[in-house]
Write a structure and sequence with these properties.
alpha/beta, Rossmann fold, six-stranded parallel beta sheet, 8 helices
């Protein structure tokens, strides 16, 4: 039987996957996309965190993350993926600076790939070193023509999975 020799096949047929897999997904800023990222991220085995400096907005996320942070980000490690879901927020620079001060595995900002993201100037104005600015991915996710928040979340999570597995996954070129 194929599932006896192929672990991926066994998982597809209901075998437990690695229960010790500890990864964290941080959605920065409450938004419709953040709601789906957190919901689907939990299904994918992430510990989910919403970072939303505005407590009123944090209540509107529509998903139930494992942790909601409205002040200072918790300690993040090298198994943490961070997705900034709103690049128009005035807190963009400080929030991303605080993320980049930690050894996160991956950080990205949603936005149109046709022009430079506002995070670049926001980070430079805060004195963030260029090497850290360069750690921020933009655009993010797989290019599947996503238009709705759920589709954008799926494309983003698929891209993170591809990156974690060192697969090209069809990422946009940087």
């Amino acid at each position: 039987m194929a599932s006896e020799t192929d672990p991926a096949c066994a998982v597809a047929h209901g075998a437990d996957d690695d229960p010790t897999f500890t990864r964290t997904l941080v959605a920065v800023f409450a938004s419709p996309v953040a709601s789906f990222l957190l919901r689907y991220g939990r299904d994918l085995g992430y510990r989910t965190v919403l970072f939303e400096p505005d407590p009123a907005r944090a209540k509107e996320v529509g998903a139930e993350p494992d942790v909601v942070v409205t002040a200072i980000l918790p300690a993040l490690d090298g198994d943490t993926d961070v997705v900034v879901t709103d690049h128009h927020r005035p807190e963009l620079g400080p929030a991303l600076r605080d993320v980049l001060a930690q050894p996160v595995r991956w950080a990205g900002v949603m936005g149109n790939p046709r022009h430079e993201g506002p995070h670049v100037e926001a980070l430079r104005s805060l004195g963030v070193p260029q090497a850290d600015v360069d750690r921020v991915h933009r655009p993010i996710g797989l290019d599947i023509g996503s238009r709705r928040p759920a589709e954008i979340a799926i494309a983003t999570l698929a891209g993170l999975i591809a990156d974690r597995n060192t697969r090209p996954g069809g990422f946009f070129s940087r």
